[in-house]
# Entry
Amino acid sequence: MTVRLYDTQTKALVELPPAPAQVGMYVCGPTVYQRAHIGNAVPFVIFAWLRNWLRERGYDVTYVHNITDVNDRIYEVAPGASAERARAATEWYLQDTASFGLEMPDAQPLATETIPEIVSLIEELVAAGNAYESGGDVYFRVSSFETYGALSGQRPDEVEEQEPGALKEDHRDFALWKATKEGEDTSWESPWGLGRPGWHIECSAMAEKTLGPEFLIHGGGLDLVFPHHENERAQSQAVGRPFAKIWMHNGLLRFTGAKMSKSVGNVATIQEVIGEWGREAALLFLMTGHWRKPLEFSGETMTAASVQVESLRNALRGETRAEGDWQELAAVLDDDFNTPAALALFHRWAREGALDELRRGLAVFGLGSLGDSVEAPAEIVVLARARTEARAARHFAESDRLRDELAAAGWEVRDVPDGFELVPSA
Ligand SMILES: [Zn+2]
# Structure
């Protein structure tokens, strides 16, 4: 079976070339100005899992996840200190995403490190007539790109205005370069004077710099289809780059009924969620929804995820009693990366005792640690040994007392043929 993934532009499942093939995957990261909320983590996690799965299927994957460290929002939030703020928030984002315990992306380019490539792409667009300078700004000429709107399903003549501006030829046009305004503390030299790049051109340049003019997958949140990805596509394809073949957009997290957007503020940061529930529950929670669908984040859904984590952890402490069929997992993950179906299969393997396949499957999602035995502290081991000796000497009252003492300390002691085993109480 071949791997198929849903593409926003064609609204259809697209087959990947047979493995082994190279898979370049560019996934839009956050604009950095505060501690990232859990909603920002969704694309990072989904595409890290997809990378793991495609590697498992024999593909040679390069996962690029950018960081937008120049953007209007950063100037607004930290006037006069945007560069320092962006630097600090980049560090936070790297730490927070690392705390999921997944392998990090192969490249995490910063917009500020890509300025020469951004400027030269804009120059190319101006030379080709796809962009024009106006008052120190440079705008993309939407009327010059025939299939503008195709990704978001809009007719070119009916595209909505995405940013106001008196310097534009056409209300549909958008900025590639913005002349420095008062109070902006970062700026770069360019053929059009001092300024800074627009958000969309940053991603076109970072994607091309890291993956080349043509790559297989472009990912990001569903809120990025228009204008961000429509514009990336226009900027790169207008000057002849094939750019991305498959556009994947993940569903957004819903928090207490509303979309978790930056305007809501720090409703639940990655740091808070992992601090409160642990990384395993956070990862399992994200598996419960199909990547294209919205997912409800709440205390209840996180509690339910924790219960599932403990159930799988418990199963892995048992004995292997059956063999699972790995092809069953392949069937659901190859078919548009259906993680809820994979999770259901993991629970079935847990019930049946197909622990080898369960361990291997969980590892794809960064949950291989559920099978790790936890090392008990020395004083707990001393108590457990005393209990075993008391039991061997038929001092049952003493052995029961020690068992209760261990339970109070959070450890369950189990008798096994060659002694005892200590398991943290659920
Ligand atoms: Zn982007």
User: Anything to note?
Assistant: Residues 38-56 form the longest helix (19 residues). The pocket of zinc ion is lined by residues 28, 203, 228 (CB under 6 Å). Residues 278-371 form a domain with the Four Helix Bundle (Hemerythrin (Met), subunit A) fold (CATH 1.20.120).
